[in-house]
Amino acid sequence: MQFRQVQAILHSWFGIVVLWSVFLIFFTGSIAYFRTEINLWSKPENFLYLKAPPSSLESAQVAYDYLNTHAPDAKRWRVNLATSRMPFNTLEWQDQTSKYHKLQDPNTGLILTEGRESLGGDFFFKLHYSLYPLPDVVGRMLVVIVGVLFLIALITGIFTHKKIIKDFFVFRSFKGQRTLLDLHHITGVVTLPFYLIMAFTGVMIFFYLLMPMGIHQQYGENGIKKFYSEIQYSNVPKPAEDSGIQLKEFSIFSRQLPQQGSNGAVLEKFEVKNPNTAEALITFDYGYNKLITFNNPQFIFAANTGKNLSSERNLHPVAQISSATYGIHLGYYASQWMRWMLASLGLIGCIMLVAGALLWQRKRIKQHNKLSYTVVSYLNYFTFLGLPLATAMYFLANRILLASLEHRVQYELFIFFMSWIGILVIPMLVKMQKAIVLAFILTAFILWMTVFSPIFLSPQAFIFNTLRHQQWSVAGVDLVFIFIATGYIFACYYFRKIKMREVAK
Question: Same structural domain for residues 416 and 489?
Answer without folding.
Answer: yes
